[in-house]
Amino acid sequence: MVKPFIRDHSAQVLLLCGMLTMIAVSLQSTVVVRCAQMVFFLIFAGLMGRRVRLLPPAVMLLSVVVANLFSPNGRVLFSVWRLDITYGALRLGLMKGTLFIGLIYISRVSVGPGLKFPGRFGALLLKTFAYFEQLTEKWPLTHGDVLGRIDELLLTISRSDAGSARGEPRGPEAADGRRGGVIAAGGTEIQPYRRNLLAAAVLLTAGWGPYIASWTLIAADGRIG
Amino acid sequence: MKPKSTPSATDRELVALLGACCIFLALIEHMIPKPLPFLRLGLANLPILIALGVLNPRQLSAVVLLKILGQGLINGTLFSYVFLFSAAGSLSSAVVMFAVSRLPDRVVSFVGISISGGLASTVAQLGLAFLLVFGRSALYIAPVFLAVSLLTSIALGLIASSFCSRSRWYSRIAGAEGRRW
Q1: Helices (H), chain A
Q2: CA 20 to 30 Å from B39, out of A81, A96, A164, B129?
């Protein structure tokens, strides 16, 4: 009774675990752990067969860190020309950048083939996840006219969507709203439910494990309670 | 002409795309350093501002709901007071912006709509702060909040106006059904 249910809903379990993992990563306050988690989720997404590009996250991380350095905070580590590099600003930049990239790759792992939700809102939610993934993947990291680039990006996404409506193959795809949404498996390969459940367990462990471990250590030290 | 009231597959696609844009912009905003802790640009409101001309109230509510959930998830505030503040701000702002955008003869520009939404959001959040956190002290921070909200709303309105006036994507989705400013 339970096994068939889990077998049929493994993709939903994976998504739910992905969302819980996002909360754990957001709550993580140790910068080294957050960095390690980001690297882990990036590698894990690759292992799960999701497309992973290294340059865009690297550029993104660097730009977030640099932007944050202009708001000095805490003790000065060193100076570059006239800019004081402070510990607080560096830490904040790393925390934000790693969170950004970590969430993207958790999302990519969580939204997988076989995912379905009942009803219209389910279809809408799925479609939103699919579009979010496309936006993060296709976001152009170039200089120049920002609004023009956004317009071009929205046109590209809308065109690819029109292509899918005509029956051309595309990644995540929502079905009729009354039946809910289903993400089709890519090609002829069907992802087994065991893989989804294993991925869910890995996500939860990587997300909540360090958080729980740090609290356990603190409790053991007698600093709380 | 008013937006369509019967949702089609294309409308659902548009709602999902705008919802995804809200979440994406919330993520971008989260990365931008803030000189003051409460200073927020409200970038995630841009898709809602743009959606006013092309979606009916029900579809707009769906976009707002997606925005609230997405923001809570990204900022890690889904189970906190902050989420309540965010939800109150987003809902009140959407209701007021929708009402203002439906005034006859399109007398209010994007900037005006954005200002009304920004102020509604700030007033709702100050009201909650008054009731739940600060009490009467909330009145002391009100002028600063309202001033910041006014400035960011003007900026957002200008961005939305500039985008809609030159965007090929917006021209396509607005078409004959949409309202143009």
Answers
A1: 2-8, 10-27, 31-47, 55-69, 87-110, 119-138, 146-165, 193-220
A2: A81
* Digit-coded pLDDT (tens) for A138-172: 776 566 677 888 888 888 887 766 555 444 434 44
**Structural domain tally of chain B?**
1
For residue A216, the tally of other CB atoms under 10 A from its CB is 10
Contacts of B34 (CB under 8 A, 6+ apart): A71, B40
Q: Rounded to whole angstroms, how far apart are CA atoms B141 and B139?
A: 6
DSSP class of residue B45?
G
* Contact assignment for B16 to A136 by CB distance below 8 Å: no
Distance between CA atoms of B46 and A122, rounded to whole angstroms?
24
Tokens 């367990």 found at: A201
Contacts of B172 in chain A (CB under 8 A): 155, 158
- The dihedrals phi and psi of A83, each to the nearest 5 degrees, come to -90, 120
What is the C-alpha separation between B120 and A213, in angstroms, rounded?
Answer: 43
Q: Compare all CA atoms of chain B with the CA of A147 and give the residue at the minimum distance.
A: B163
Instruction: For residues A94-116, give the mean pLDDT.
Output: 81
pLDDT tier, A44 (very low <50, low <70, confident <90, very high otherwise): very high
Does A156 touch chain B if contact means CB atoms closer than 8 Å?
no
Token pair for residue B36? 């003051």
**What's the Rg (C-alpha) of chain B?**
16
Calpha distance A43→A51 (Å, rounded) = 10
Report which of B128, B122, B120, B84 is spatially closest to residue B101, judged by C-alpha positions: B120
**Which value does ipTM take for this structure?**
0.81
User: Which structural domain range is residue B152 located in?
Assistant: 9-174
pTM higher than 0.90: no
- The answer to whether position B180 is within a domain reads no
Residue B122 lies in a domain: yes
pLDDT for residue B66 is more than 50: yes
Let me know if residue B181 belongs to a domain. Answer: no
Residues of B in contact with A131 (CB under 8 A): 16-17, 19-21
Q: What is the CATH number of the domain that holds B118?
A: 1.10.1760
